[in-house]
Amino acid sequence: MILDGNRRWAKANPTADGDISTSRGHRAGAGKIVALLDWCEEVNVKVVTLWLLSNDNLKRPASELNPLLEIIGDTVEELGHRGRWEVRPMGSLELLPEDLRNKLTSVAEKSRGIEGVIVNVAIGYGGRKEIVDAVKNVITESAKSGKSAEEIAEALSVEDISKNLYTAGQPDPELVIRTSGEQRLGGFLLWQSAHSEFYFCEAYWPDFRKVDFLRALRAYSVRERRFGS
């Protein structure tokens, strides 16, 4: 899920006193996540990946970024407090403020092994950076065994990279949904989505409804998946 359109939603839906703040849009979007996970449970979805913050978002002005990071921290803690899902943070977590990293680590540890939907929360995430990190890990581990650069390059495989992605051990996504009408991945799960189906919904994320979710699943169900063939 690419949860897009929070800022545009806020501008399109001002409060009575004219509040169109970005943070209000992000809080409205955060409030939709539990409902989405409820819907996923109802239809037996096993793994959900939520893109909450991209690497590029980390370059935003502090006046916009800091409230967003606070909202993300509160949202992940709320998911953890519910005790229903295993929450797995993923992304360039080393770039996040220490207090947010600590929150993410705590929720991940406390929720580990919970039966139910696995919820990946992509924070400070970029698909290109993920692939670079995976290749670096392969090279580093291979070099420890004394292999030369030529040997490492010769042996490098698709499986090696897949085993070093943030989502290692999980199935690749069957369906990628993006809200807000934008029809692009923007760097989301570039490696994993090679054979995914895509669904683009016009609704801004805070306006995304159960009927929109079910329409996405119905559209997916009638497609013939070719897996690159």
Structure commentary:
- This protein is an alpha/beta fold and 229 residues long.
- It has one domain: Decaprenyl diphosphate synthase-like (Undecaprenyl pyrophosphate synthetase).
- Helix content is 45%, strand content 13%.
- It contains nine helices and five strands.
- The strands form two sheets. It has a three-stranded parallel β-sheet with strand order 1-3-2, with helices on both faces. A two-stranded parallel sheet has the order 4-5.
- Helix 5 links the parallel strand 2 and strand 3.
- The radius of gyration is 19 Å and the shape is globular.
- 31% of the residues are buried.
On the 0 to 100 scale, the average pLDDT is 96
CATH C-level class is Alpha Beta
Helix content range of the residues, please? 40-55%
Number of domains: 1
Distinctive features:
229 residues, alpha/beta, Undecaprenyl pyrophosphate synthetase, 3-stranded parallel beta sheet, two-stranded parallel sheet, 45% helix, globular
Concise structural overview:
By secondary structure, the chain is α/β, with parallel strands linked by helices. The chain has helices spanning 6-12, 22-30, 33-42, 62-82, 98-111, 127-144, 149-155, 158-162, 210-221; strands at residues 47-54, 86-90, 118-125, 175-178, 197-200.
Give the topology, please:
Blueprint: H1 6-12, H2 22-30, H3 33-42, E1 47-54, H4 62-82, E2 86-90, H5 98-111, E3 118-125, H6 127-144, H7 149-155, H8 158-162, E4 175-178, E5 197-200, H9 210-221
Parallel strand pairs: 1-3, 2-3, 4-5
